[in-house]
Design goal:
By secondary structure, the chain is α+β, with helices and mostly antiparallel strands. It is built from 5 helices and 13 strands. It has a domain of 142 residues.
């Protein structure tokens, strides 16, 4: 007579109902990048007249320089102060929501309430950061690498080819233009740049690390911003995978991926807020009190405030995924 094993394989054995798959009750979050772009908006209303769907900022225009000498006995003609220029920020509602059922909360193997709250909160900053990025990445000042040549405020995105990687000359030109436009630096005497890690790889390869200043050489440890990789050519650089890229360059099989690197000074971006974005625990209003809403909501908007304080570099990268 053969042996009958008490195991977990046989349909009628003791282990059939008693040995089960185990799960870790700690549910991890997805990998996340730091939201950076809203931090650029350092211009906000100071003394707003009243609530409104659009906020208009006024900027004084200076008089033309008076370089002629005055005649001793002639009263000079008065000149009119120029009209102000304006920048308008249109406010809009933004938000997202989830509806969590009572049955899920009763049956789930892990307490999902903290996780859902965290997901909603991150969705808020993640979504708004992308909205801000899409506003500031379309400024009028752009430097492109086109067919091996640097083109300032000319050329096309569609002419950026696979070999048109970022070069130090692009940064020097952008910083020179920012200074020529009287843009004010953001950190000490440095402007702030946001570049994709793929672009950072090419820039570091081109420079071999030469002339890069470590953040520790110009900031105390407590004041180093997340993602800062150092200062180079008058720009404090921040690596972020949120830097915009699109397959809209040269070469059609597939198109070259073009990365947008931003370099900005003070007051490049204006922000107006009617209601600061925040997480909301909504009321439970269904008949059996089973559905609990949680979401986020805000009313705000952005616009480029000083074009002279913003430059965009359009280049590709050695590490770019073709067509990505």
């Amino acid at each position: 007579m053969s042996n009958a094993y008490t195991d977990i394989l046989s349909g009628a054995s003791l282990g059939t109902n008693l040995v089960k798959t185990a799960y870790d009750r700690l549910v991890e979050f997805n990998l996340r990048s730091f939201p950076w772009y809203r931090a650029i908006s350092d211009k906000r209303p100071v003394n707003q007249t009243q609530p409104g769907s659009t906020v208009v900022f006024n900027l004084y225009a200076d008089l033309a320089a008076a370089t002629s000498t005055l005649a001793e006995t002639t009263d000079p003609d008065a000149v009119a102060i120029p009209a102000t220029t304006t920048v308008s920020v249109t406010l809009a509602e933004y938000g997202n929501a989830a509806l969590v059922t009572r049955k899920l909360r009763l049956f789930t193997l892990s307490d999902v309430d903290p996780g859902i709250a965290d997901i909603i909160a991150f969705n808020m900053v993640d979504s708004l950061d992308q909205v801000v990025r899409d506003v500031i990445r379309v400024g009028t000042n752009v430097i492109r690498e086109n067919a091996g040549s640097m083109v300032i405020n000319g050329g096309t995105t569609g002419a950026v080819a696979n070999a048109d990687k970022i070069q130090s000359r692009d940064i020097r030109a952008a910083v020179a233009k920012l200074r020529a436009g009287s843009a004010m630096p953001r950190v000490g005497d440095a402007f702030v740049g946001y570049l994709h890690p793929d672009v950072s790889y090419d820039l570091r390869s081109e420079t071999s690390g030469a002339d890069w200043r470590s953040p520790h050489s110009y900031s105390s440890a407590g004041n180093i911003w997340a993602g800062v990789v150092g200062e180079y050519e008058g720009v404090m650089w921040i690596e972020t995978p949120r830097a915009y890229s699109a397959a809209d360059g040269a070469n059609t099989t597939p198109h070259t991926t073009v990365y947008r690197t931003l370099i900005c000074g003070q007051q490049a971006l204006a922000e107006a807020v009617a209601e600061e974005p925040h997480v909301i625990l909504g009321p439970v209003t269904d008949k059996l009190l089973r559905f609990r809403p949680i979401g986020w909501y805000g009313v705000l908007g952005w616009a480029i405030y000083r074009q002279a304080a913003l430059y965009r570099l359009e280049t590709t990268s050695t590490l770019a995924t073709p067509g990505a």
